[in-house]
Amino acid sequence: MSAPATVASPVAERIWSRHTPEQKFLRFAFYFLVVAAIVFSLKNIEIIPEFLYDAPAQLKDFFLRMWPMDTAYYPKTVHAALIETLNIATLGTLLCLVMAVPVGIMAANNVVPFRPLNILAQFILVSSRSVNTLVWALLFIAIFGPGALAGTMAIAFRSIGFVGKLFGEALEEANKGTIDALTATGAPKTSIFLKGYWPQVMPSFASIALFRWDINVRESAVLGLVGAGGIGMAMDTAMNLFRWDQVAVVLATIFIVVIIAEIAVSAIRKRII
After folding, report:
1. Does domain 71-272 have CATH number 1.10.3720.10?
2. Residue 1 pLDDT more than 70?
């Protein structure tokens, strides 16, 4: 007598899904919060529709008043202000490097394995980056008065966080082989840093310094709007007098200088790196 045939149990149909239910919920929550934030922001900034409708005509009139540019304004005022801007950016960057290197070394826990100093360095770096350059300028104007000195100090203190953080991260990513070899020979800590760490991070440090100088050229161009010297003061004067043809000269000068600085920094970085 043959055994009864077994009936195969039906296989549950498997439906492929790109995201799990938890991932779908998180994505929905993220998009919902983004849309809610945009709606809340648009509601609170109180956009006036009439100004939006009138914006194209005002923009056209704005550019018509800028042309033709008053090129005679450049040799009389803009050139000296431009040189002052470049001096502010350069001196501020150099001063920043002097202050940022020790802070960056303290922030690298493999170079300075002392937690309180690491925390102090991180606090300095975060404090520097959290305050905008114009706010630093206002603070130093209150201390030193209006002028290029306040702008130079503002550029320097704003740049400490940028340079120090990237320099500290470069030190932490240094190859340990050379460091361990120098340590095993009994080399002092100064020699370990100069012969072990510095040759590895020097190209990165030079690139960071050049990149920060490029940024500082752009930032120093607007410091004059709050009285911290530079080409921004020439633009502020022209704007207050409603001389838009002179404003156009200042804007064109800033644009050309930024482009030249970008090209120069890129060329130098290629040779270094």
Report:
1. yes
2. no
